[in-house]
Amino acid sequence: MSLKGSEVAIYSERIKYLFDYTMANGKYARSSLALDTYKALTPNASQEKLVSAAKVCSSIELMQTFYLIIDDIMDDAKLRRGKPCWHTLPGIGLNAINDGLLLDCSIDWVIREAIPQHPHQATILQTLYE
């Protein structure tokens, strides 16, 4: 199945809204700490490797946001970080479950794209899901 013109626009808009609403303006403490750790352990890393590491570290934020969306639905929470929870927004509702799963699936894709030839790619993915 492949998406056609207007479908691509609709899905792209929804994903952008999801990312902007649920992930933007966060502190990114988890991914920043992971990237700082990588930099400390590999001080001579090339710019290319730093960019790849940053992408892998960003997957931590995807995972955290996925967990928060699902947790808010389970708890029937109304607010997250002082603003309405994703699932409470007009037009979102329980479709937020699909949005959370989209974030979860994105983790795998981001890591595979960031480090396609890394010898420990499978171990990294496995560790994230344990």
TrEMBL record:
Superkingdom of the organism of origin: Eukaryota
Pfam families named in the record: polyprenyl_synt
Cofactor(s) listed: Mg(2+)
Gene3D superfamilies: Farnesyl Diphosphate Synthase
PROSITE patterns in UniProt: POLYPRENYL_SYNTHASE_1 (PS00723)
Keywords from the UniProt entry: Magnesium, Metal-binding, Transferase
Pathway entry: Pheromone biosynthesis
GO MF annotation terms: (2E,6E)-farnesyl diphosphate synthase activity; dimethylallyltranstransferase activity; metal ion binding
GO cellular component entries: cytoplasm
Listed GO biological process terms: farnesyl diphosphate biosynthetic process; pheromone biosynthetic process
Protein name as it appears in the record: Farnesyl pyrophosphate synthase
Organism of origin: Acrobeloides nanus
